[in-house]
What does this fold into?
Amino acid sequence: MNSIIKSGIAVFIFLVSVLLMALFRIVPVSKIWSHYSVLYVQDSVSEQEVVDLLTSHGCSDVIALSVQHVPFVSSITPVNPLSSDYITRRSEYFFDQTKTYRLYYIPASQEKQTAASLSALQDELKVSAGVDGSLQYPFVVPLVCMLVFGVLIFLSRNRLVFFAAGLAPVLCSFCVPLYPAAAAVILFIAALFFAERLWLRDGTLMALVKSVYIDVLAVVPVVIMSLLSGHAILLYLLSLLACVAAIYGMWQLTVILDSRKAFTFVPIFSAFQIPVMGRKKSYVLISLTVPLLALLLFFLLSARFMPASSVQSICIPSPLEDSDGGEMLVDMNDYFSWAWNTVTFPYKNLNEPQTASVKDGDSVVIPRYAKTDAGVTKTYETVFTYDSSFRKELIDGILDSESPAVEKLLLSEGSSVRVGYRTKSQAKTSTDSVSLVLILVALSIPVLLYAYYYFVGSRRI
It folds into this structure.
């Protein structure tokens, strides 16, 4: 197989990889609830009509008022205690504060189906509807990667080779527009920048494998992408495949061009004789902290913005921060109290005042009588104890249930979540702590490698 055919195959693999990246790109959507989108529809439309429309467009496990039921009743008596209004008040989750709109909670993994359903509601039924989240493409993510890529192209020696090798990873930042992904891409194109100095030298591959700088800058991005999501790492691996194809294609192109020359230049020094990191390149390495700090800043600022909605003044149930006050909706603590009162109701003395409040350590104790040699003796048995084990059993029961209960919505934010009505200007989106940690990890890499170079000195690795 000659070099022309090999170059053609490399170009084909590059184009197919880039095309697959574009087809399976990640579209970021901002949401109030981490794992659910909130669809609000004018109350004039019946819930059954909306649910049927959602089902026809592929939406499943929709949390709606009509599918809510009493979680359980006592095994001894079906009578429910009157000391808790949890079951009645949880219906507030399915209306906005003015009761003008009905609310439906759709799993975030069904974004495309939700968008199609929303279009049908607005275009076919001509009703006022919207979702709490909106498509918000963070252009700053690929922009920062492009700026870094442009600067490194200017500083590189083999500009065409570096451009071809780094093009696919930079395009990956467009297809995975997430801040940690951009940080990973910056680290990888930095590895390509430091590696291009060894282009076409004898033993290049082994020299790169044995370089601490290249190893860290190439491996850490893979780890970051893996921790982001399976979708992200798949797209990143496609970009790496395109990168390898581009490098191989450039090599074959060099072979073709050299074959047409009367003589060619061969580098005197092998790859092992050329240091990957030097004094000037160490400055480039530490300078990577600038774009990474910019990504960190933009990420922190982005966490403050409320998802856009077509009805600006709508107030819908939203997770609250610990410092937020105001009127609260029922939450998991109320559910735990209701469950406790329900299962312990048959054991309580109805002549005593009943209360809905419960605290850790509360228990239900009943007398037991046994015949012994000394006669009939009386003992006490603890039937129920309100503690973490009791709550865990309730949580497991909810998660194992196939019913799309509103408690699953609450648990998606954590059992301690507090909820209240908030407008667009008041609500806050939750900060992705995993993404924050990954950005900080990426930011630490140039600093650690620079410190390594500074203390090791001019050691050629």
Q: What stands out?
A: Confidence is low (pLDDT under 50) at residues 303-311, 424-431. The longest strand covers residues 375-385. The chain has 16 helices and seven strands. The beta strands are 36-42, 101-107, 129-131, 316-320, 363-372, 375-385, 418-422.
